[in-house]
Design goal:
The protein is an alpha/beta fold and 335 residues long. It contains ten helices and 15 strands. The two termini are 31 Å apart. Bound molecules: nicotinamide-adenine-dinucleotide and (2R,3S,4s,5R,6S)-2,3,4,5,6-pentahydroxycyclohexanone. (2R,3S,4s,5R,6S)-2,3,4,5,6-pentahydroxycyclohexanone (ISE) binds next to helix 7. Belongs to the Gfo/Idh/MocA family.
């Protein structure tokens, strides 16, 4: 039957996922929304037939018409929601990051392992983006030989209020950490954090932009420019440099316009626009797998591994220089 979903957190992403589940995805409906801000939950619920508003995630997860959970609250609230979902053995799509640090991610890993089966798909939506999927298929085909380096640019028009140096890593660069692990099929072993003199447009207390370098256990080098107040738009680009060629994505997303002696195009202004197709594909894949009784996509292990790399990244920012990543042994459930 139709999957009844509780959406936890009805902010920017949560509200967009409610719209998506109601209007785009097939096979699901939003039966509950939860927000600590009661007014917010109520106003989102009011737009959806048969949807109840809650302020307590546990109460929503106990409702008869809730079969699955989409967590879109801020990262620090994910652990409690995940553990409650595990108590009820409910399937979960959890927005990235799984949790904000490695210790809490490890607690989730342990809890799911005790459950004995995978329950979580982590919201690393770039794995569902058409361009990233093309790059992945090309690298996997072996046509270009072994990937040697990966260059990444990650730019946001402006950062939200309260954005910190640590969030620059654990909220933003976490995507490149997952992309690196997924594209290359390798673990990240060390992170180096460097920074130029901050832009004059960087908000007080945030060193923006920054430059990170990852080393992998397959001997690849990966660099990431993270610039969250670039002002001009939202850009995510990647270039793989391989033994027999290079491949680049993220540059021709929009139409190219010739007009009055100039050529050009427009740049997406935010992730909701740039990754619309990826979010649609991600959520539909989750709903389809859940209805078949399966769990696919980025796992709790992937969420944990990214959190461990984030921890090294935040230490590298603070201490300067290169910090090695510490990972526990990968449990059989995730092999
Ligand atoms: P937001 O601040 O716009 O919304 C968060 C909402 O959660 C708010 O309405 C807040 O009141 C509510 N909330 C706070 N604590 C809660 C709790 N304990 N239980 C229930 N609700 C709670 O944030 P956002 O930008 O929508 O981000 C939400 C999540 O989505 C984060 O994990 C973030 O990293 C992720 N995100 C992912 C992408 C992506 O590209 N995949 C983009 C943006 C955000
Ligand atoms: C945000 O949380 C995201 O996940 C976006 O994809 C990213 O571009 C942005 O920097 C983050 O803050």
């Amino acid at each position: 039957g139709t999957l009844g979903v509780a959406v936890i957190g009805t902010g920017r992403m949560g509200a967009d996922h409610v719209r998506r589940l109601s209007e785009v995805t097939s096979g699901a409906r939003v039966s509950a929304v939860v927000d600590v801000d009661a007014e917010r939950a109520k106003s989102v619920a009011a737009g959806v037939d048969g949807c109840t508003a809650y302020t307590d995630p546990a109460a929503a997860m106990a409702a008869d018409d809730v079969d699955a959970v989409l967590i879109a609250s801020p990262g620090p609230a994910h652990e409690a929601a995940l553990l409650t979902a595990f108590e009820r053995d409910l399937p979960v799509l959890c927005e990235k990051p799984l949790t904000p640090d490695a210790a809490s991610a490890l607690r989730i890993l342990e809890a799911e392992r005790k459950l004995g089966h995978r329950r979580v798909q982590v919201g690393f939506m770039r794995r569902y983006d058409t361009e990233y999927l093309k790059l992945k298929a090309l690298l996997d085909s072996g046509r270009l030989g072994r990937p040697l380096m990966l260059h990444n640019r990650h730019r946001n028009a402006a950062s939200p209020p309260g954005f910190t140096d640590a969030m620059l890593v654990s909220d933003s660069v976490v995507h490149e950490m997952d992309v690196t692990r997924w594209l290359l099929g390798q673990e990240i072993t060390a992170v180096t954090a460097l920074r130029p003199t901050p832009s004059r447009n960087a908000p007080e207390g945030l060193a923006d932009p920054q430059f990170l370098v990852f080393e992998t256990d397959g001997g690849a080098l990966v660099d990431v420019e993270i610039f969250v107040n670039c002002g001009f738009g939202y850009q995510v680009q990647a270039e793989a440099v391989c033994e027999r060629g290079t491949a680049r994505i993220g540059e021709e997303h929009a139409m190219v316009l010739n007009e009055a002696g100039r050529w050009g195009g427009s740049i997406a202004q935010d992730f909701v626009e740039r990754f619309a197709q990826a979010y649609d594909h991600e959520v539909q894949t989750w709903v389809d797998a859940t209805r078949r009784g399966e769990v696919t996509g980025p796992s709790t292990w992937d969420g944990y591994a990214a959190a461990a790399v984030c921890e090294a990244g935040v230490r590298a920012q603070r201490e300067g220089g290169r910090v090695e990543v510490e990972l526990v042994e990968r449990p059989a459930l995730y092999r």
